[in-house]
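Today's session is about reading a structure prediction critically. Students often jump straight to the picture, but the first step is always the sequence itself: look for stretches that repeat, for charged clusters, for runs of hydrophobic residues. Only then move on to the predicted structure, which in these notes is written as discrete structure tokens rather than atom positions. Here is the chain we will use throughout the hour.
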Amino acid sequence: MTALAEGRATAPARRRRPFKWGPVGRAIGLIVIVLMFLGPIVWMVLASFKYNVQIYDSSKAIFFEPTLDNYGTVFDPRRGNYLVYIWNSFFIAFMATALSLVLAVPAAYAMSRFVMNKSATVVLLARIIPGVSLLVPWYYIFAQLKMTGSYLPLILSHMFVSLPLILYIMMSFFDQLPEELEESAQVDGLTPISAFFRITLPLSVPGIATATILSFIFSWNNFMFALVLSGPATKTLPVAIFDFIGYASIDWGALMAASVVVTTPIMLIALFTQRYIVSGLTAGATKG
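Below is the predicted structure for this chain, in token form.
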């Protein structure tokens, strides 16, 4: 017993590993960020199933008797046909994005391959100028042409922001693609245009997908241009949501239900295309 006690006494004591606060801090920070982003969305969805009285009652923040009356109000033809507003938003966003892609992708390729810095600077100035500052000239011009309330002014105004956005995303992506691929294709007998369509363009699909998604999201969410340039037949979803805000009161339940209708398509697009967004945004980060 004495020898055993002496052996234990002489054995080196085990050192306790120091507690690492790094993983715990990262986990806490991640939880806080997730709550900051998801909290308003969860509140919006819950409020869309509440009466206005329940929304003001803090005791019914989570547990309450749900109702679908707010969604009935949103899709009530007497209040406004939201199916038409959804179509207007989709059509304007689709046309603005498609036309911007047709113009911006070849322009980005030319600016990238031929180092057209002056042209890129002009496009950058268009990105810097606030689009809101052009609303009055746009409205005056389209009013003189008697085109206010039609789709064309909305599509052109959205392209003013979408086209430079797509161009700069694609420029950085084309800068990352090696020119040797096109030169090899031309040695094999392809023309420069054929090499662009058959070699460069397929390789740039992640960048095109990123630019398309971001442009579509901007057009879908745009409010100011549609508020000034749209008409009763071309009203978009963000402007239609504004109708629930009255002078004396706000229909919070219907407003939240309409907000859910607006944000759901964008959230689904971002959820199923996040791989393309990440790959496209990081494709031009390094060159060579």
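Discussion point for the tutorial: The longest helix spans residues 82-113.
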